[in-house]
Write a structure and sequence with these properties.
This protein has 399 residues and is an alpha/beta fold. The chain folds into two domains: 227 residues, Spore Coat Polysaccharide Biosynthesis Protein SpsA, Chain A, CATH 3.90.550; 141 residues, no CATH class. Helices cover 50% and strands 10% of the residues. It contains 15 helices and seven strands. It has a seven-stranded mixed beta sheet, sandwiched between helices. The chain is elongated and about 85 Å long. It comes from Pelobacter propionicus (strain DSM 2379 / NBRC 103807 / OttBd1).
Length: 399
């Protein structure tokens, strides 16, 4: 059993945002109330039942939105209320019955007075009836959070989380629906909060019994727009407002300890996912026709995206002339004229430089993403294999 929370009971709340979950709501809230004394339910404009009647007799607080504003708005309504009541942490549990309130104690040891950790419940997908869309969505969200923050999180789409409300209420958000849950992780990380994961179980009903407020087209469009916004903001040479002071830089002086600095750079973003992303980004930029600027652009992007700078800067050598530029020019020429350029030489390139540069650019739009995917995939396989071998070797030595 997890040890008790170091956080006083009156400082900890459970929040259940609900929209049209009449079949499961009372059971979920009863489960939460059995574990925590403080439970707040936010009715986000439900139309399938009177939420007050569904929860009659339960000692919980009910807040209402006059109309549906989105899950993100419901979470923020609960967060502001919890802080007003003197609470410090708020555990959010979905009302559709997929989360098990009995897993709340797994969060408790990680919640400390004045804590700055945002704790995310990582769902166990080895259970039955997990839809492909959920598996893909989790991988998709995890990848984009890695791009946006440089951090690896096991389940960015899980709504079972513990928020430090004082910090959550100071952040500003654009998203109000399911895109909020992607945005809040990125902005929390930028603000200096620690993203921590804890394993949880999950229940997925059979497809014919499943009730979800997620609208595939509209909500996926919102999520794609949100990730585009977050990546664009990350690329700007502007700092983020930090709510938690930055820790002193772990890097020693380059001039006094060059070997230590090199060692730390090699370990930067050294997970298989981080190394794969570093290799893919470095290769993508290296293929583009940004003459004499590749190293500068690659270094800037790797700095903004917290990538492994050793990998991003060195992978560009795989795209050095003449092979990769020639491949791009041939591809671009074929797309423009419907035939291959048979007379490709230094003479024809420089004599018709403007045409070749245009074809290089057009071709790079095809070649760059393909080369990036191949390079990133190969790096992931190598890094994952090396990690697996090392773990097996370590386990063997430990026996």
């Amino acid at each position: 059993m997890p040890r008790p929370s170091p956080l006083p009971a009156e400082k900890l709340w459970c929040a259940v945002p609900v929209y049209n979950n009449r079949e499961t709501l009372r059971r979920v809230v009863e489960g939460c109330r059995a574990i925590l004394d403080n439970v707040v339910v936010v009715d986000d404009g439900s139309t399938d039942a009177d939420v007050g009647l569904l929860l009659s007799g339960l000692d919980v607080t009910l807040l209402r939105h006059g109309h549906n504003q989105g899950k993100g708005r419901a979470i923020l309504t609960a967060s502001r209320f919890v802080e007003q009541q003197g609470g410090e942490y708020m555990v959010t549990v979905d009302a559709d019955g997929q989360h098990l309130p009995m897993d709340i104690p797994r969060f408790l040891p990680l919640l400390e007075p004045g804590g700055t950790a945002l704790v995310i419940g990582c769902r166990d997908f080895s259970t039955d009836n997990v839809p492909f869309s959920s598996r893909f969505g989790r991988s998709f969200a995890n990848f984009w959070l890695l791009v946006e923050t440089g951090q690896v999180v096991g389940d960015c789409q899980s709504g079972f989380r513990a928020y430090p409300v004082h910090y959550l209420n100071q952040l500003e958000f654009k998203g109000a629906h399911y895109d909020f849950e992607a945005e809040v992780l990125a902005r929390a990380a930028w603000a200096g909060l620690e993203l921590v994961c804890v394993d949880i179980d999950v229940i997925y009903p059979r497809p014919e019994e499943r009730v979800s407020s997620f609208r595939p087209f509209l909500d996926n469009l919102r999520l794609s727009g949100m990730h585009s916004l977050l990546v664009g903001r990350r690329m700007l040479p502007l700092g983020h407002r930090r709510l938690v002071p930055r820790s002193p830089s772990p890097f020693p002086s380059l001039w006094r300890h060059p070997a230590r600095v090199l060692g730390m750079l090699l370990k930067e973003s050294a997970t298989p996912q981080g190394l794969a992303l570093s290799a893919a980004v470095g290769m993508f930029i290296a293929v583009l026709p940004i003459l004499f600027m590749h190293s500068i652009v690659i270094f800037y992007v790797s700095l903004r995206l917290n990538l492994n700078k050793i990998v991003t800067l060195n992978v560009q050598h795989l795209a050095m002339p003449p092979l990769m530029p020639a491949l791009c020019i041939e591809t671009g020429y074929y797309l423009r004229h419907g035939r291959w350029l048979t007379d490709l030489s230094f003479a024809t390139v420089f004599r018709q430089f403007s045409s070749r540069l245009l074809e290089w650019f057009i071709g790079s739009l095809i070649v760059a993403p393909v080369a990036a995917l191949l390079c990133g995939g190969l790096m992931y396989l190598v890094a994952a294999t090396v990690r697996k071998v090392r773990r097996a070797h370590g386990a063997k030595q430990g026996c």
